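S2.1 Query sequence (Oxaloacetate tautomerase FAHD1, mitochondrial)
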Amino acid sequence: MAAPRPLSRFWEWGKNIVCVGRNYADHAKEMQSALPSEPLLFLKPSTAYVPDGSAILMPPYSSNLHHELELGVVMGRRSRAVPEAAAMDYVAGYALCLDMTARDVQDECKKKGLPWTLAKSFTASCPVSAFVPKERIPDPHNLKLWLRVNGELRQEGETASMIFSIPYIISYVSKIMTLEEGDIILTGTPKGVGPVKENDEIQAGIHGVVSMRFKV
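Output structure tokens follow.
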């Protein structure tokens, strides 16, 4: 028999990282982007995971790497065409995540009408915190997120400001692709995204719940 796969280490075996873009109006505004009428989705490979305390690797083809702070929702069981009313029953817990973005590459992709894969899906582009069981977060829409670079506060936001709610996102995604146990959905970033450079230290947290630290 195969050894059980603990959700506490979902990043070691979870398959899919599904990301939602522009899910905070203030971030869409700072990026000079239109507000979406439905969730804007893109994917990262499982090799994008970086556990707390490890190094974030800068992609060699980018000179403008940005941090984007996000609440991640970890799925607890297989989810296919889940109704919104039942969506939270499929959640195992949460993690704080960074959607590291090669902004210069993304800008070029946008200009050319190309997918964002080069800008979003490189190795070590998804740093994650420790797993937080669902029971520790009674209301994921009532959390305060923060991020500091070298001690300077860069991002601060509240999950109450999401455009699309977590149940809506789970239902929407699961009607397009089947989600498996251990998969994660990144729910978008609040405003304040910005550049990091080599040897910068990033600290981030969910106020009162979990924190994490990475070196670039």
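The radius of gyration is 16 Å. DSSP finds four helices and 15 strands in the chain.
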